[in-house]
Amino acid sequence: MKQPVLTFFNNKGGVGKTSLIYHLAWMYAALRKRVVIVDLDPQANLTAIFLDEDRIEEIWDKQKTGSTIFQCVRPLTGVGDIAEPVLRNVATDLYLLPGDVSLSGYEDALSAEWPNSMGDNNLYRPMRILSSFWQVMQMAAAKVQADIILVDIGPNLGAINRSVLVATDYVVIPLGADLFSLQGLKNLGPTLRSWQSLWKKRLDNWETCPEKSSYPDFHLPQGKMQTIGYLCQQHSVRFDRPVKAYDKWVNRIPNVYRDAVLNQASNTTVKQKDDPYCLATIKHYRSLIPMAQEHRKPIFNLTSADGAIGSHANAVQDARKDFKNLASIIAGKIGLQL
């Protein structure tokens, strides 16, 4: 049984994506779902939240086979094959496959094999490389009997992210209340549909090639890339501009989401806060963020010993309710029983 892959993606950065994945991973683990987190952003920001710098430096310096996502796929750049992932047990039911700044060097291999995968023969190697992220994810999930795989990727539309999205079953789009997030949304929808169509052609090509019979145990991702909704950052004063300056962007999101992502002609008057495709509005937790980072724990696990007292203690409880509700909504969308 292949485990569902859920990727959080917007080709516009700075929308709180990495922090969101971090907190949802902890929440699913608290709800007794076994989670594998895969950091596929070459900047490795998610890894930096989970592990301290000394530990990360040790992992990167040793370059042990399978110790990071890059070390799992690196053998494919030579004559080797995918290496078994070495997972970090962060907490009960919570496992991390660390990211690696060296991953950006894998982009060339993925770019080169994309056209090769539409050839008439010698297709196994290209398809193995293009599906390598999915292969590693499923190996990791099988290793710990995970219920779900959460993936973080960088804000771009390059070859690495294309292969990640090919490996993805479900996509959540985090958004900010600004022009740049809206433009990112416009770019993202057509790109996902294009990648989905192009991958289907490669799957069909593989199904009819003579080599397939020689690899009966070689499975490939279906490239579903089903977008289940978007998340919007709570807007407030920014750069001394009033909240009103953001309302025009927030209220345009429902129509743009339907047009660009769902490919539906739309002229809805629904507000973002009432939009069924809006999974949640992510609050600004302000001073709780640095407090949580200092103690290397999610906001909703902060205690009075960490400094979460008074109004902070109330905010911690609110955060727990918010993320539990979001985890439940997403689980319902992807068929994950809590």
> What's the architecture in CATH terms?
3-Layer(aba) Sandwich
Beta-strand percentage range: 5-15%
Tally of individual helices: 13
Quaternary organization: single chain
Would you give the CATH topology?
Rossmann fold
Which class in CATH terms? Alpha Beta
Structural class by SSE content: alpha/beta
In N-to-C order, the SSE pattern is EHEHHHEEHHHEHEHEHHEHH
CA radius of gyration: 20 Å
Structural descriptors:
alpha/beta; 8 strands; single chain; 338 residues; Rossmann fold; eight-stranded mixed sheet; 44% helix; 13 helices
Task: Tell me what you see in this structure.
This protein has a single domain, classed as P-loop containing nucleotide triphosphate hydrolases (Rossmann fold), CATH 3.40.50.300. Helices cover 44% and strands 13% of the residues. A hairpin with a 2-residue loop joins strand 3 and strand 4.
Question: Can you give me a brief rundown of this structure?
Answer:
The chain is of the alpha/beta class and 338 residues long. The chain has helices spanning 17-30, 45-50, 53-62, 69-73, 107-116, 124-130, 132-144, 159-166, 179-207, 244-250, 253-261, 288-295, 311-334, and strands at residues 5-8, 35-40, 88-91, 94-97, 148-153, 170-175, 226-233, 278-282.
